[in-house]
Amino acid sequence: MKIVSNLPDTCLDWQPPNKPRTIRNCLRHIAHVEIWYITRLNIELPSKNPRNVFKLLNYTRKLVIKTLENFPRDKMRGIFQPRKDPSPTCNLWTARKMLRRFVDHERLHTKYIQKILGMYKKEFSNQQKVY
Question: Is 103 a domain residue?
């Protein structure tokens, strides 16, 4: 949040050449995947989410933290096959795997966002104040 919260819309929505996502799309992806990871342990979460990407990130973070704080003891050592959106390749989940994926996923996309910010800055450094 520190590196993206003060970015202008032009930067958040800039489509980098030969890259799959804008920064805003990447943030939305992070938020939705966090909810998806929780559902891997067959925990139901609300399906209605805020539209604004920063509200969505805050909402999903609070939801994930609340879920983890109240995590049922019987699920801590369990192995789960998700009922919702099963994957044909990776369908056995544990709490440890879910938490590891949370961290790895966020690190991956934080690096991506930093790379896109560097590209944006280079692209527009001579034209305007970047951020």
Answer: yes
